[in-house]
Structure formats: structure tokens, C-alpha cells
Design goal:
Number of helices: 3
Number of strands: 4
Oligomer: single chain
Structural class: alpha+beta
Radius of gyration: 12 Å
Largest sheet: 4 strands, antiparallel
Distance between the termini: 21 Å
């Protein structure tokens, strides 16, 4: 099972164990920053597989997490 790192401006801010945790964090971030960054444009989500220590993981589209319910 993959885990996720959430980065803001390239700096790690939080680690999630599931897609639901990512979704929750991202929604809260968008709510908190509705005035200055409503689209969470500076947030990157990196999917970490078992080989992430070797590959660095892969970036995933944050819009997919914002759309899903």
C-alpha cells in the first residue's frame, strides 16, 4: 500500500497513509487558504511506494483529490 507526502513549495509538510487522509488534508488546506490560495497551486502530492527510497516516488495530480468525494 502506498503512502503519500504532501509538499508545499517543494518542502514536506505532512505524510498521509491513505488517499482519504490526503483528501481530508487537502480540503482543510483549501478551506484555510481560500483567500490567498484557493486552488492549492503550491501543493504537490508525492506517492511513495515500497521503492520510493530508490525512485523518489512519483508526483500525482492534486486535482483528482479535489474532485473526488
Amino acid at each position: 500500500m502506498a503512502s503519500f507526502e504532501l509538499l508545499i513549495d517543494g518542502r514536506r509538510r505532512w505524510k498521509a497513509r491513505s488517499e482519504d487522509e490526503v483528501r481530508t488534508w487537502l480540503r482543510e488546506y483549501c478551506d484555510e487558504h481560500a483567500a490567498d490560495e484557493p486552488d492549492a497551486a503550491h501543493v504537490q502530492i508525492r506517492c511513495l511506494s515500497r521503492l520510493a527510497w530508490l525512485t523518489g516516488g512519483r508526483l500525482v495530480d492534486r486535482d483528482a483529490f479535489l474532485r473526488e468525494g
